[in-house]
Amino acid sequence: MQGVTTWVKNPRNGRARGPAAVARAWVEILVRPSRFFRTGVAPGDQAPGLVFAVCVAVAFAGGRFLFEPATIPTAFGGPAVSASVSLLFVAVFIAPAGLHLTAALQTVLLILFVRDRAGISETVQILAYASAPCALAGAPIPELRAACGLYGAGLLLLGIREVHETSTLRAAAAAAAPATVVFGYGFRGLDAIAALLTRWYII
């Protein structure tokens, strides 16, 4: 309880920074998501959310490189150098750009479905923290990857409902497309679900 309260105790001065704060937020969003979204998202305080999203994206990409070396780009020399450069590219360019582009899409959809809503900053933070489960999705285990994607989509829906104070139905309508983009394609959730359905002879 104290951890989340401290995390947003003084939004004007920003939330706690550093590895311990990121780790605490990761645990809180996974085990107490409703409470976290109610108390852990502050207007105008995007920086910790951006750092969180970058950490998740790097963990996901690093997991893929570790368990599936064939996914490491080969344009930068040997595997170690290529992996390092690729992770840096993910951290500096792909994760921030992906987060803000998806937030722009989510904002447009919120305008369509939710009349009275919170600001763009809060939307960015919701998307960032909803990605928490996908830090574990780098392992090539379809069950794990599918579970991470579905849990992330559920967190996005929950976050929109709690922070933007809307109904579950409106939150689901607003979150459907961004969730598909981020968790279905970005974090490979749809591929994992398709692999499981094929294994179970459903498709």
TrEMBL record:
<protein>
    <recommendedName>
        <fullName>Yip1 domain-containing protein</fullName>
    </recommendedName>
</protein>
<feature type="domain" description="Yip1">
    <location>
        <begin position="28"/>
        <end position="183"/>
    </location>
</feature>
<feature type="transmembrane region" description="Helical">
    <location>
        <begin position="87"/>
        <end position="114"/>
    </location>
</feature>
<keyword id="KW-0812">Transmembrane</keyword>
<dbReference type="InterPro" id="IPR006977">
    <property type="entry name" value="Yip1_dom"/>
</dbReference>
<feature type="transmembrane region" description="Helical">
    <location>
        <begin position="47"/>
        <end position="67"/>
    </location>
</feature>
<keyword id="KW-1133">Transmembrane helix</keyword>
<dbReference type="GO" id="GO:0016020">
    <property type="term" value="C:membrane"/>
</dbReference>
<dbReference type="Pfam" id="PF04893">
    <property type="entry name" value="Yip1"/>
</dbReference>
<keyword id="KW-0472">Membrane</keyword>
